[in-house]
Design a protein that fits this description.
The protein is an alpha/beta fold. Helix content is about 35%, strand content about 15%. The structure holds S-adenosylmethionine (SAM).
Length: about 260
């Protein structure tokens, strides 16, 4: 039997996703990670030295070649875009911007990208790349985003996986350096709470966490979670960098040239 939300969801967005069967996030954590503050502060105070993978450097160069010089200040990222369905929807919502969907999964991006590392159609650009390295390459080239969507990032629910969640990752300061309004959506409240606390540590302001139910889902994972009856959370926060603000975090500066 269909759930109420399942009936209203357009099947086209879902591809092969199975409706209403997604398990809720299962984690031993009952609240924000006890080491969160320490980890975030350490990353804010430390240079991030990991070299970017070669394929991500190539993907970044290819993406640059597909962008006009006058377009660089009108960029929106959909980071971890999966199949790229949300990128097209966002591009229709933001017709004055170029929406760049980035994901490392060749299979998820296969129908949007084929064998290419980057491909553009109208104001949509899809790129296959590692996010953290791509972010740093973009910051070092002076990119500052209008908006940055983080839509249903992998939750990494084991406590030992804190460093894989974006707010616990060494690239968190680079994410802030990219600027723009960050919109995080997820189906695990603790992820949203941790992200909000990390933002408060970094920019001094605690963003509100909103529980929401979209009329039409923006992404395939959103559709799946909605149909499975999960609570969805959204957090919107302006990062510390505004256009024209030159200072970069230590994490980014180390690879500036
Ligand atoms: C849970 S899926 C969500 C996909 C899409 N945003 C949606 O809502 O339907 C998370 C996506 O992030 C991508 N991803 C996770 N870590 C990544 C990384 N370090 N670099 C690039 N992509 C990554 C995965 O390949 C996957 O497609």
């Amino acid at each position: 039997m269909q759930s109420p939300s399942e009936k209203s969801i357009k099947p086209g967005l879902l591809g092969s996703a199975r409706l209403g069967r997604s398990p809720k996030v299962d984690s031993p954590q009952s609240g924000p990670h006890k080491n969160l503050e320490h980890v975030v502060q350490r990353h804010l105070d430390t240079a991030w030295r990991a070299p970017p993978p070669r394929h991500t450097v190539e993907a970044f160069e290819r993406a640059c070649s597909l962008l006009g010089c006058n377009e660089r200040d009108r960029v929106i990222f959909d980071s971890g875009c999966g199949t790229g369905a949300s990128v097209e929807r966002l591009a229709r919502m933001h017709t004055d911007c170029i929406v760049i969907g980035i994901d490392r999964s060749a299979s998820r991006l296969a129908s949007a990208l084929g064998a290419d590392l980057a491909r553009r159609r109208g104001n949509v650009l899809w790129v296959r790349a590692e996010l953290a390295a791509f972010w740093r390459l973009a910051v070092n080239q002076g990119w500052r985003l209008r908006k940055h969507y983080l839509l249903y990032p992998n939750p990494w629910p084991k406590p030992g996986h804190l460093a894989r969640r974006w707010h616990g990752h060494p690239a968190f300061p680079v994410l802030l350096d990219l600027g723009g309004e960050i919109e995080l959506r997820c189906n695990w409240r603790i992820y949203a709470e941790e992200f909000g606390r990390a933002m408060a540590i970094a920019v001094g302001k605690q963003p509100a966490i909103e529980r929401f139910e979209p009329e039409q889902p923006l992404t395939p994972f959103e559709a799946k979670y909605l149909a499975s009856g999960h609570a969805l959370y959204r957090l919107r926060v302006r990062s510390r960098k505004s256009p024209g603000c030159p200072g970069l975090s230590k994490a980014t500066k180390v690879h500036s040239s």
